[in-house]
Amino acid sequence: MKALKVNCFIVLIFGLLLASCSSRKYTVNPSEKAAKAADAMAALKSKDLYRFITDWTGVKYRLGGLDKSGIDCSGFALLLEKNIYGHTLPRRSKDQAESVKKKNKSNLEEGDLIFFSFGGNEVDHVGVYLNNNFFVHASTTRGVVVDDLNMPVYQNAIVKTGTLK
Length: 165
Known about the structure:
By secondary structure, this protein is α+β, with helices and mostly antiparallel strands. It has helices at 2-22, 30-42, 47-56, 73-85, 93-98, 152-155; strands at residues 66-67, 70-71, 101-102, 113-116, 125-131, 134-139, 143-148, 158-163. Keywords: Hydrolase, Protease, Signal, Thiol protease.
């Protein structure tokens, strides 16, 4: 009986190991992710952009928000483009997507816009490209953050990339 319990335990552990390995598609340890995001920030050409992002990092998400008490993704993109590049953007991400000149994802430059659709075919999120596949945006769960575009959640949701330049 004891041998049967041990064998069942071994089979259970082996099964859990197999299941956990197969479900890992994109894993980066948090300190590595933070280091890569810091590298992307350090590589910015515009020091004004660096200061702007640093100043806004961590501001919580608030739908319709346009200040440090809370900001949404399109509001953040609007303020960044206005304050750093002098560009005027519409307020909604869907309208912002219509105002940019389409650009291939592989040719993105600092300050270009990236549009996502997490809820269907319509644009419902926007971020600003930095470099090395990193972008800044106002995340609904984490506020203003720098994230890796290589994460599957973003790769699967990109619908348009473009420039205002």
